[in-house]
Specification:
mainly beta; 234 residues; ConA-like_dom_sf; seven-stranded antiparallel sheet; DUF1961; eight-stranded antiparallel sheet; DUF1961 family protein; single chain; 54% strand; 3 helices; Jelly Rolls
Length: 234
Amino acid sequence: MECPLFETGDVLYYNRLACEQDLSDFHAEGEVNMQFIDNSLVLASRLNPEQHGDFAHWVLWCKHDFPDRISIEWTFKPLEEPGLCMLFFAAQGQNGEDIFDQSLPRRYGHYPQYHSGAINTYHLSYFRRKWPDERAFCTCNLRKSAGFHLVAQGADPLPTVKDVKESYQLKLIKYEQYIQFSINNLVVLEWLDQGSEFGSMLTTGKLGFRQMAPLKAMYRDLKVSELNQLAVTT
């Protein structure tokens, strides 16, 4: 794969995720419990998955729309597992609507509403510890929807919660057809969306965090920046 080199431009959005006021930019779908500990946002489900199954999970959307050619960075630390963490990005209605358009069906955190519903989006699963097979062989998965298409996969370097000693710096690059995900500057996966399968390349839209219960995790310092391409290496 040809690997672009980028220069970070202007910061388009920054949120410390450090206090309740910082959540005014966000919209929850599903029963999410939000706390602030040590100037960080700690997220979990209000519902017990043993009672509510797959309806115990949730999505927390940032209300802002973002362009193409961006990097998305955030600090992450898993606190309790099992569970799963995901980032949606470039999310729009299938006909270009805002994802909050009243004409779209209501969503409340149930995964099929997002991967095979009325929206198009990329979704990156970067901490997959929900099911026994995910814990036995840990990967990060990139999918494109609508349609739940697995388009890229890479080894997950994050340890299980009992071995976590620090927070991790996560970074997602979306520059036209090129998508790259890294953890602590280690590239985990890359993919080129040629727009020739699974629908046209996705560009602008919203981003959102998703967790599967009963996972509990910490988030801090969400930053979205413009990207300028410098060169292409092979």
